[in-house]
Amino acid sequence: MKFGKLLLPLYGVLALIYLMVPIAYTIMFSFNDSKRTNIIWNGFTFNNWLNVCDAQGVCQAFANSIIIATVSTIVATVLGTAIAIALVRYKFKGRAATTLLLFMPMATPEVVLGAGLAAQFLNAGMPKGMLTVILAHIMFCISFVVVTVRARVAGLDPKLEEAGRDLYANPSQVWWKVTFPLLLPGIVAGALLAFALSFDDFIITNFNRGPVDTLPSFIYTAASRGIPAEANVLASAVFLLAIAGVVTAQVGGAIRRKKLGITP
Amino acid sequence: MAQKDASVFAAGGSDLELVGISKVFPGFTAVDNISLKIPAGSFFALLGPSGCGKTTTLRLISGLEEPTAGKILIGGKDITNTKPHQRTVNTVFQSYALFPHMTILENVAFGLKQRKMKNAIELAHEALALVELDHMASRKPSQLSGGQQQRVALARAVVNRPALLLLDEPLGALDLKLRRQMQIELKAIQSEVGLTFLHVTHDQEEAMTMADTVAVMNKGKIEQMGAPAELYELPKTRFVATFLGQSNLFDGKVTGATASTISVAVGSRTLELPAKRSAITSGDITVGVRPEKIAITRAKPAASKSRSLIGPGTVTDASFSGVSTQYLVDVPGLSTMTVFEQNDGDIVKAGTEVWLSWDSEFSFGIPLEAQGFHDSDTSTTTLAAQAK
Fold first, then answer.
1. Domains in chain A: ranges and CATH
2. DSSP per residue, B29-41
């Protein structure tokens, strides 16, 4: 009886540990006073965090990843939002086909997508580099933005925009004062998803990156001869930033709800 | 944005004139050559079943739809080709369409801010006070009840002092009690602010209690237009007779007509009605009488020149509703008749043989038409589906 009651909490704790071990390992080894490889624990140090750019190429790769993810996210979010609105609001020839095509990049295996793109860039005579990686990322990110934003557009009552037009707002004012603020949660969600996907994409990137290193490709290459502790530092920093972002959003939302007097 | 002519925002409404307005969607005509004039400061109701084109008419006036043909004039000025945001017209939407991301105050001030009014916030507070919701100004629409949201939607439109205020079934989503209360409030606000109101509804009671003038619409056309009592007492078409209240209708043929009276053969009976109360004076005709005009008696009343008499019939149903009792009386050779009787005497039980009589002055004559509107009536959704 008592054992039965303990079973579920025990399972929960074990599952959590299972999920957390790799993350905890990564964070812990970012403080490892590593010599040549960062596999054996050699003692605690802050040096990796303080001199994070000392390891060759790691900071350049990180910067590349940030640039690629930012540009891809902005372009994919703008295009994806426009496509999502068109798909929900307008009836046009080929709407069903467009919807199907948008799902293709999500359904196609990344290896196929990456190889196919690499062949296309070769045919087009485009040298592999930052630009080809960004183009590839925009392509698969658009689909995810469209899917996320489309749900939000479908839930938006067109009467609200009509009310805006009725209350003396011209089309661009209706967009900025009514439509955009109401779609914003969907657009932000789509953008975050696009950023995350672009930031840690490895397969498609690796086919199209040429000499450019991104953080995932850097770590992959480094893994064969020992990943520097600085890579752990960057990975941990990204993780902590993401957690901080989520916590801020949750706490902010709770405070706002409390101010408005809504009990969740 | 395009600056509006400030003078049209002066207190009080403006005339609205529709000249031969039509709206054709692929596959069906929603509005069919309507012409009407609504004088400034009046409360006008467009009444009709769903799919009759009343909401489309409203959207044409607000500019959310473009007419296929015809002209729209407000205060004598042709506005047919202007955009919704350029029109001095505001709408209270059926679903209220309050902006969920703004507070109540921001919602009400929206139109004023678009027009760059300096005292937008002050005026918005005044409008909220008018609907007794100023204490809710900082809340979001989702925190308000349906009736409160309805009042905010009204305030958001009224605050702009539009030349014309359009109300698209604004009380449709409220429960009966709240609806009756809001009807009175709306009417009070209309006389207080003196704006021209155009109210669209399918609720005939709502149209009759609120409006100065009612236009009954059916299949994109206006069947009849006039004061509520006039429409009720003297309907001109079968549709008006059955949609606006209930009517007992008898199809027959005119057998004789003098300057004052028309005789109509209904089966083996002859009914007489005043010539001035008949839309036609020869050929096929439908004679009608409202249920509350009929007296129900157990004994056969003495024959009288001025009274129409039908019977004997059998009461098939008597439903008591407090103030009155509704009887259904089956008369051989005629359809089942409906009679409303005040509960000031005894109540006749079902199965009793009765005679029905009424003052012939209450009869009305309308053109004979194919039976009922119900079979040909289509709902908005069906029509919309056909349009696609």
1. 1-55+231-264 (no CATH), 56-227 (1.10.3720.10)
2. EEEEEEEEEE-TT
Distance from CA of A38 to the nearest CA of B (A): 51
Domain ranges of chain B: 12-233, 246-367
Q: Is B147 on the interface with A (CB under 8 A)?
A: no
Contact predicate B366/B288, CB 8 Å: yes
Q: What is the pLDDT of residues A48-61, one digit of tens each?
A: 888 888 777 888 99
Q: Min CA distance, A82 vs chain B (Å)?
A: 21
- On chain A, the residues whose CB falls within 8 A of the CB of B93 are 159, 162-163
Cα separation, A124 vs B312, whole angstroms: 95
Asked if residues A221 and A99 have their Cβ atoms less than 8 Å apart, the reply is: no
Residue B92, sorted as left (phi over 0), alpha (psi -120 to 50) or beta, turns out to be beta
Chain B contacts of A165, Cβ < 8 Å?
A: 63-64, 83-85
Note the CATH number of domain B246-367.
2.40.50.140
Write down the CATH number for the domain with range B12-233. 3.40.50.300
Give which of B71, B96, B90, B82 is closest to B19, Cα–Cα: B71
Taking contacts as CB-CB distances below 8 angstroms, the residues of chain A near B143 are 260-262
- When CB atoms are compared, the residue of B4, B83, B110 closest to A167 is B110
Mutation for A interface: B79, B101, B113, B143, most A CBs within 10 A: B101
> Would strands B164-168 and B196-201 be described as parallel, antiparallel, or unpaired?
parallel
pLDDT (tens digit, 0 to 9) for every residue of chain A, 264 residues total? 577 788 999 999 999 999 999 999 889 988 888 777 777 888 888 888 888 887 778 889 999 999 999 999 999 999 999 999 999 998 889 899 998 988 888 889 999 999 999 999 999 999 999 999 999 999 999 999 999 999 999 999 999 999 999 999 999 999 999 999 999 999 999 999 999 999 989 999 999 998 999 999 988 888 777 778 888 888 898 889 889 988 998 898 888 877 766 554
